[in-house]
Give the backbone structure.
Amino acid sequence: MAEVADHYNASSSTYSEQYDESKILTSKEYPANYFRLKRIKERVQALGLTSIYELGIGDGSPLAAMAELGLRVGGSDLTEGMLGVAKAQFEAKGFDSSVLTLGDIQDRSTLTEAIAAGPYDAVMALGVLPHVRDEGVVIDNMSAFIEPGGTLFLQFRNSMMSLWSFNRLTMEFIEEELLKDQPQEVKDVVRAGLEPRLAMDKPPKREWDVNGPAYDEILAKFHNPFELADLVREHGFTDVRFHWYNYHVTPPMMAGELGQSFRTAGIAMEDTDTWRGMFLCSSGVIEATKA
Ligand SMILES: C[S@@+](CC[C@H](N)C(=O)[O-])C[C@H]1O[C@@H](n2cnc3c(N)ncnc32)[C@H](O)[C@@H]1O
């Protein structure tokens, strides 16, 4: 499996495009991260937060948006490439870039100084959990940045959408999660019955045109929202709630039949935060309070 850092070092120079509000309707890829950030900004304001720390800052756009809201911010990233782009963005916007450092969300020893500069009202990791080996360690490391009453924002790729995609991921979800404890005989019958009905050749691999490994070639896990919520609680958080984004109003393989309506209908559902998101959305953010 390719290195996570190589993928993000290779994508750092073009990463900011996804936060360009003027391209929401025209960008090649659905601007999912734009809507994720919009929702978090709304929550930050609703909760009256005054400071936030981010792990895995990427190009710095989400954290700069927090600084623009008037919050005290700090952040870190695994890669030199992303850190460089984030620092440049902070400097261009007149923010102090010395609050941005290298740091690995899975390795507390790389975060010691950053933790000492806290505590913050909130801590967030967006787009990072898919790439980690030990989620419990990550939640504990994030928790170190906040005090009891502080807020956690933790993004994840939603495995439950597999029940709406009717493709290879559906088969994997059913066999490996839903029927995990069933005897092989049961799994074999279900596989034989479902495989001919599912698009087993989908999803296709993502295309990538820069000199780095594609997203599919690095560790990029899905998480089950029920299990992740339990884990967050086990690691000292309460009041767990979900925010859903990146709505798919059809299974992804039918999106092309709707053309632009797929995007406009999806955008109309962003921010609705109902139970439908658990099935229609490819990603979610857990919000929780440190106990
Ligand atoms: C999908 S990007 C998201 C960036 C930003 N949070 C955003 O929402 O736009 C994931 C970022 O996490 C960083 N990353 C990956 N693994 C990490 C780790 N173990 N520790 C810290 N950052 C990591 C990558 O370098 C990349 O910048």
